[in-house]
Prior knowledge:
single chain; mainly alpha; 9 helices; 81% helix; 0% strand; globular
Amino acid sequence: MDTIYFILIISILGPVIGSLIGVIKKPSYRFMYNLLGFAAGVMLAISFLQLIPQGIELSSLTYAIAGIILGTAAMYALDRLIPHIHPELCKQEQGCKLKRTALYLIIGIFLHNFPEGMAIGIGTVTGMKNAIVVALAIAIHNIPEGICTSAPYYYSNKKKLKSFLVSSLTAVPLIVGFFFAHFLYQHISLNLVGMLISATAGIMIYISADELIPCSCGNEKNNGSHSTIFSLIAGVLLVVMLGYL
C-alpha cells in the first residue's frame, strides 16, 4: 500500500473509532483525558522541534512567524464562529433538544476537521515519519470527539448504525483537507511551503493550548490526577525518540 494512503487511513481512524465506541460503550473519563494529554505532547513536540525549524529552513524566519500567526488566527476565527467540542459536552442533555445539540456538535467537528486534514497533508511534505506521527496524534485527538458526537446522537434516536455513520462523516473534511494540502505544495514556492508548514504548527499549538491541555488537566473529573501530565510527557518523548530513528 502507498504510504500516502496508509497515512490517510490512520488520520480517519480517529473519528471512525470514536464514533463506534460512542454507540457501544463510552470509556472512562480518565482514559479519554490521558489520550488528550498524549496527543497534546505529540502535537507540541512536532510543532516546536520539527515543523517550525523546517518552516524557517525552507523559507525564512519572517515567513515562519507569519505562518504561525496565520494558523493560529485561522483556528481562533473558526472557534469564534463555531465553538469546538470539548469532552464536557458528552454530558447528555435532557429533553427534545438533545438531537439538535448532537447535530450541532457533528457540524462543528465536521468544519473543524478540514484544517486538521491540511495539517496531516502538509506533514507529508516534511517527511513520511512526520506525517505518520501527526496523523496518529490527530487521530488520537479525534477519538474522544467521535465518542462525543455519536453517543448523544444515538441516545436521541436509538439507531446505532445511523448514529455511527452520521458521526463518522466528520472524517470527510479530514480527507479533503489532506489532499488539498498535499497537492497544493507542488504548485507553490518554497517560501509559501515554509509558511504553510509553520501554519500547521500554529494550528496544532492552538489545538493543544486551547483544547487538549485544559480538557485533560483541568477537568473536575480528573482533579488531583497527574497521569495526564505524564501522558503529555510521553507524547513529547515519543516524538524525540522518533527523530533519532
